[in-house]
Specification:
Layout (H helix, E strand, L loop, with lengths): L1 E4 L2 E2 L1 H9 L6 E2 L12 E2 L22 H16 L13 E7 L4 H13 L9 H5 L3 H10 L3 E6 L5 H14 L5 E8 L4 H9 L29 E8 L1 H6 L7 E9 L8 H14 L8 E3 L6 H15 L8 E2 L2 H4 L6 H15 L1 E2 L22 E2 L4 E7 L4 E8 L5
Parallel strand pairs: 5-6, 5-7, 10-11, 10-14
Antiparallel strand pairs: 1-2, 1-8, 3-4, 7-8, 9-15, 12-13, 14-15
Helix pairs in contact: 2-5, 6-12, 9-10
């Protein structure tokens, strides 16, 4: 697994931040946000693409989300025990990337050049850098001719959907190994203005580290962030044969839209049912729920409501958290962040606290993990993601051997 997130780059920094309930949210520095109602976001700190991407590939011509995805891929390959200079990958090797907002930094720069200088001043690399496929293409180019690149775009569930698509390729026998995940870099003037206008960006500008507050009674909205997380998926026999470190097994998946606009969260209820059925699990198998929990008053409550409805009397006995208090809402990267955190939860048998959830909202009255990590027997995890437009996806993962 490889991760670049606002709360930490690399697995150790990312995990330490989650366990320590340290937020990665701060003032926007990627552009001048003076005058914006919301001037905070979750930026990946100290990121230099040249630390991860060979100079001859001209990384600064790439969109920021492509740079982040490439860097996360290099981290994941290294974590998987693969030699980056002599990759011995099976053919085909799918590369499946989830992207939500696309290359808005490239598009906005080109627009300003055309609008303010000349219609002939758009950078010649704009077209290649701004297509939705760009991140997957660049990674596939690095891997060589054995790679087959694909892009998934389904709003916030994009990254989780990409992982599920890659897992299906392995399960069907189409591939033995796949590279997958999600990436987004939405902290640009136009995108932030759009989220602010929609009421989807907290205005707690004076206290940014405490702005993202999933399930807390004092939350005002979520916080937009950026990042990338990439996973190496393998056929179990292949992974065991080469002595790979195995974090978890992907057992089931479901995705569904809300049944109608009057039933927010109903799609998530259905996606949970489908994922559990596909895995052959019962409700009693679930040891922990990694919630979408963006820190928005309406969206948090809707998710808790459908968890209660599905789990019934058992709902209050299943630990639940949201990592977005630390990471913010990284859109397509948010689901993969949760998958990475779930793998580390299974490894260490520790559930991170929900950062900034100080006083639980009465509408979110489940066993929300607060204040400090909780030690527990965690073999089976349910992961939820919901997106604009009412789409929802659920993935269930488990410790290998725990079926």
């Amino acid at each position: 697994m490889g991760v670049l997130a606002p709360n930490g780059t690399g697995l150790k920094a990312f995990w330490d931040s989650l366990l320590g309930a340290r937020s990665g949210i701060g003032p926007i520095t990627l552009f001048d946000a003076t005058g914006y109602k919301s001037r905070i976001a979750g930026e990946v700190k100290g990121f230099d693409p040249l630390d991860y991407i060979d100079a001859e590939l001209k990384p600064k011509r790439m969109a920021r989300h492509t740079q982040l995805a490439y860097a996360a891929t290099m981290m994941a390959l290294k974590d998987a025990g693969m030699d980056l200079n002599n990759l011995d990958l099976p053919s085909p090797t799918p590369v499946v990337m989830g992207v939500s907002m696309n290359a808005m930094d490239v598009v906005e720069r080109a627009f300003h050049a055309v609008q303010n200088i000349s219609p002939n001043r758009a950078a010649p690399t704009t077209s290649a850098a701004s297509i939705p496929q760009a991140a997957a293409n660049v990674i596939a180019d690095k891997l060589g001719s054995c790679a087959n690149a694909a892009t998934v775009s389904s709003a916030c569930p994009s990254g989780l959907d990409a992982i599920a698509d890659a897992a299906d390729m392995i399960r069907s026998g189409e591939a033995e190994l796949a590279i997958c995940g999600g990436t987004d870099a939405p902290i640009t003037p136009l995108v932030m203005a759009s989220f602010i206008a929609s009421g989807l960006s907290s205005e707690r500008n004076s206290d940014p580290e405490r702005a993202s507050r999933p399930f807390d009674v004092d939350r005002d909205s979520g916080v937009i962030s950026e990042g990338a997380a990439v996973l190496i998926l393998e056929n179990l026999e292949r992974a065991e044969a080469r002595g790979a470190r195995i974090y978890m097994e992907i057992s089931g998946y479901g995705k569904q839209r809300d049944r109608n606009h009057d039933e927010p969260g109903s799609g998530l209820e259905d996606s949970m049912k489908i994922a559990l059925a596909n895995a052959g699990w019962t409700l009693d198998d679930v040891d922990y729920i990694s919630a979408y929990g963006p820190g928005h008053p309406v969206l948090d409550t809707a998710e808790i409501t459908v968890v209660k409805r599905l789990f019934g009397a058992r709902a209050n006995t299943v630990p639940i958290n949201s990592i977005k208090g630390a990471t913010g809402n990284a859109l397509a990267a948010g689901g993969p962040f949760q998958v990475v955190a779930s793998g580390l939860t299974i490894r260490d048998q520790l559930i991170p606290p929900t950062t900034n959830c100080d006083e639980l909202d009465p509408t979110c009255d489940l066993d929300v993990v607060q204040w400090k990590p909780r030690s527990a027997k965690i073999d089976h995890v349910l992961i939820n993601v919901r997106g604009l437009g009412g789409g929802a996806s659920t993935m269930v993962v488990n410790r290998v051997g725990a079926r």
